[in-house]
Amino acid sequence: MAGIRVSMEVGSDGVAVITISNPPVNALHPMIIAGLKEKYTEAMNRDDVKAIVLTGDVGKFSGGFDINVLAEIHKTGDLSRLPDVSVELVVNIIEDAKKPSVAAIRGLALGGGLELAMGCHARISSPEAELGLPELTLGVIPGFGGTQRLPRLVGLSKAIEMMLLSKSIRAKEGKEYGLIDAIVPPEELIKISRLWALEIAERCKPWINSLCRTDRLGSLAEAHEILKVARQQAKRIAPNMPQHQVCLDAIQEGVVFGGYAGVLKEAKVFKELVLSSTSKGLVHVFFAQRATSKVPNVTDVGLRPRQIKRVAVIGVGLMGSGIATTLILNNISVILKEIDSKFLHKGLKMIEANLEGLMKKGSLTQDKMNKALSLLKGVLDYSEFKHVDMVIEAVIESVSLKQSIFADIEKLCPPTCILATNTSSIDLNIVGERTHSQDRILGAHFFSPAHLMPLLEIVRTEKTSPQVIFDLMTVGKTIKKVPVVVGNCTGFAVNRTFFPYNQAANMLVHLGVDLFRIDRVISNFGMPMGPFQLQDLGGYGLHFAVGEIYDSAFRGRMFRSDLVKLLVENGRNGKSNGKGFYIHEKGSKPKPDPSIQAIVEESRRRANVMPGGKPIIVSDQEILEMVFFPAVNEACRVMDERVVVRASDLDIASVLGMGFPRYRGGIVFWADTVGAGYIYSRLKKWAEIYGGFFRPSSYLEERANKGLPLSMHDMSPLEVSRSRM
Ligand SMILES: C[C@H](O)CC(=O)SCCNC(=O)CCNC(=O)[C@H](O)C(C)(C)COP(=O)(O)OP(=O)(O)OC[C@H]1O[C@@H](n2cnc3c(N)ncnc32)[C@H](O)[C@@H]1OP(=O)(O)O
Question: Which parts of the sequence belong to the 3-hydroxyacyl-CoA dehydrogenase C-terminal domain (predicted)?
Answer without folding.
Answer: 491-582
